Amino acid sequence: MRIAISTGGGDAPGLNAVIRAAVLSALDRGWHVLGIRKGYAGLLGDDDVVPLSRDSVRGIGHLGGTILRTTNRGNPFAYPVKQADGSFKEVDRSDELIENARNLGINAVIAIGGDGSLNIADKLWQKGLRVVGVPKTIDNDVSGTITTFGFDTAVSTAMEAIDKLHTTAESHDRVIVMEVMGRHAGFIALHSGLSGAAHVILIPEIPYDIEKVSAAIMAREARGRHFDIVVVAEGAMPVGGMESTLGASLPGQDRRIGGIGERVAFQIQQRTGKECRSMVLGHLQRGGMPTGYDRLLAARFGGAAVEAVDDGKWGQMVALHSPNIVTIPIADALKEPRRVDPNHDIVRTARRTGISFGD
C-alpha cells in the first residue's frame, strides 16, 4: 500500500501532529507514505511529492504549521494558471492530478483540510481517487464532528490576548475592540470572549445593533466600570447590514472579510464619547504550538485516518463523536456548515453573566 498525505487551506495548530500519527501508523503496517507539498501542487508539477519516513516526522508533533506547507489557492478543479499578460485563468486540472497520482502508484490520499479542502476531496473521490478526509479548521465550522483540531489553540491564544487587554483597558478607562477570526461562524469569539470575561461579543450568527452595544457599555459606565472589552468575529454584521470587507491581498483575489473591529470601535466612540481602540488578532490565532488537547485530537485523527484507509472507507471523513473517533461520509459533513446556535447553553451562560451580544 502506498498512501499520500495532503494539507490544504489555511494552516492550523495540530497539522504536524496529524501527519506524524498518520505516517507512523502507516509505516507500522508496512506501507509507503508520500507527502504532497503545498496542497495538491506537488501532484500538478508546481511543487514536489516527497517520501515521508520516521525521520521525516521525528519531533514535529508539538510544532505549529505543516511540514508539507499549504495553500488556499490550489483547487485542482479551478487551478490558477498564470497567463502571458500576468493575469490568472482558472483551469480544471483534476484529471491530470488523478493520472499523476496513479503514475506514482498512490493507492489512497489522506486529505487534511477545512470545508473547502474537504469539498475538493469529495469531488476527487467521485472521480475515482481513493480519499479519506481529516477535518481541520480553527473556526470549528465543519459539521459532523464535535470539534476540529486547531480550535482549542486558537481560543487559548485569543483568551490570552483578552487577559492582557483587560489590564491596559482598565488602566486607561478605555474600550478595546478585538477582532478575531470567524468569517461565518463565531465559535472563537464566543468561547474566548466568555472564558476571557469580555463584556460584549459580536458574532455572525447574531446580527448586532450598535445602539444596543453602546447602551451596554454606558450601563457599565453608570455602575462605575469605566472600561470594556469587545470581542468581534471578523464576519459579524449589523442588523440588516453586510460583512465588512477589505481590498484583495493579491491581484485576482476576491475582497477579504475584515475591518469590522475598527468600524465598531469608531461607532462606539461616536456614540459614547469614550476613548476606543481596536486591534486585529489575525494570524496569531493560526500560529504557535498546539495545546495538549489539539495534539491529542490531531494524533487520534491521524491514526484513525490510516485505519479508515486500511478498512477501505473511501469518501469518508474521520470525526469526533465523543468519546470515540468515527467515520462519516464527507458529503454528509458538507451538507450544512456548522454555526453557533444562538440558543446554545454557552450563549445563554454568556447572557446570564452580563455579556451583551448587541441584540
In short:
It is built from ten helices and 15 strands.
Overall description:
- The protein is an alpha/beta fold and 359 residues long.
- It has 2 domains: 181 residues, Rossmann fold; 149 residues, Rossmann fold.
- Helices cover 35% and strands 19% of the residues.
- The chain is built from 10 helices and 15 strands.
- The strands form 4 sheets. It has a 7-stranded mixed beta sheet with strand order 3-2-1-6-7-14-15, sandwiched between helices.
- A hairpin with a 2-residue loop joins strand 14 and strand 15.
- The longest helix is centred in the middle third of the chain and has 22 residues.
- The protein is elongated, with a radius of gyration of 22 Å.
What is this structure's SSE topology?
Layout: E1 2-7, H1 15-28, E2 32-36, E3 49-51, E4 79-82, E5 88-91, H2 94-103, E6 108-113, H3 115-126, E7 131-135, H4 151-172, E8 175-180, H5 187-195, E9 200-202, H6 210-222, E10 228-233, E11 245-246, E12 256-257, H7 260-272, E13 276-280, H8 292-310, E14 316-321, E15 324-329, H9 330-334, H10 345-352
Helix pairs in contact: 1-8, 4-5, 6-7
Keywords:
single chain, 359 residues, alpha/beta, Rossmann fold, 7-stranded mixed beta sheet, 15 strands
**Which architecture of the largest domain does the CATH hierarchy give at level 2?**
3-Layer(aba) Sandwich
The main sheet orders its strands as 3-2-1-6-7-14-15
Q: List the secondary-structure elements in sequence, H or E.
A: EHEEEEHEHEHEHEHEEEHEHEEHH
Question: What is the domain total for the residues?
Answer: 2
Mean pLDDT: 93
Helix count from the secondary structure assignment: 10
Q: How many E strands?
A: 15
Residues in β-strands, percent: 15-25%
Q: Largest sheet, if any?
A: 7 strands, mixed
Distance between the termini: 55 Å
